[in-house]
Design brief:
alpha+beta; 2 domains; 9 strands
Length: 242
């Protein structure tokens, strides 16, 4: 296990851990190892004995993402993969789609057997996801929160390794703060920024060619053009600033 930072006081009530994980018989690790694209995992829910996960596939090219989706569909560890309508972006349509690395993204719902997931071993020990899980090159990168002390965390991680036959390396340990990245980039937008930004997306402002001008957006929203542009500028800055 990689050695985490040791400058956090033992009496800190909440810690954020970044974990680098491999575990066997996992379709996300297998498909990302075989292709040039990756996945962001946004959440998994169990329905009628099957896991249904919400993912964003991302890659530098549309072919790379298409190859990834084909690999997911062909995997014996998955039951189905479905693309979410409207949840895609290409190099000319980056703003406002699933915010992810790479030039091309696709929103996916994937159904699979939950037995090989590492979610339960982590969450059952109080290691709660604090960001989308990034899967690339056959490895998972988890960001989790816990209120346990360091000794307990070490024991929990040893138990996860044993239960899931997993490799779990601690990349870093920090204390959460107000300036930390929110769970989803959209969480940082004000209500008005979100309203203007989403309306601009719906009206085709970010299409190429644009479906509507800033002046026409302003007229439909009943505000000045400068106001619309300022809301969009701030929203774009928050969404794109890592």
């Amino acid at each position: 296990m990689a050695q985490p930072s040791t400058d956090i006081a033992e009496d800190v009530t909440c810690l954020r851990l970044v974990l680098d994980i491999w575990h066997p018989d996992c379709w996300t690790l297998e498909v990302t190892k075989r292709t040039d694209a990756g996945l962001l995992g946004h959440g998994v829910y169990e329905v009628d004995g099957l896991a249904i996960g919400r993912f964003t596939a991302f890659g530098d090219t549309t072919d790379a993402v298409a190859d990834l989706i084909t690999a997911i569909d062909a995997s014996p560890l998955t039951a189905s993969v479905q693309e979410i309508p409207g949840r895609r972006s290409s190099p000319s349509k980056r703003i406002g789609a699933d915010v992810a690395p790479g030039n091309t993204t696709r929103g996916l719902l994937v159904t699979y057997e939950p037995a090989n997931s590492i979610v339960t071993p982590l969450v059952s020990r109080g290691l709660i996801p604090d960001a989308p899980v990034r899967i690339r090159n056959g490895r998972e990168r988890w960001t989790v929160l816990t209120d346990d002390c360091r000794d307990t965390i070490r024991n929990w991680l040893d138990e996860v390794r044993s239960e899931a036959n997993a490799e779990v390396d601690v990349v870093c340990i920090t204390t959460p703060n107000a300036a930390a990245t929110p769970l989803f980039p959209e969480d940082s937008l004000s209500e008005r920024q979100r309203e203007v930004f989403e309306y601009a997306r719906e009206r085709g402002y970010y299409e190429r060619p644009r479906g509507i001008s800033a002046a026409d957006l302003a007229a439909e929203l009943g505000v000045a053009k400068a106001t619309v542009l300022e809301h969009l500028r701030k929203a774009e800055s928050k969404l794109l600033d890592p």
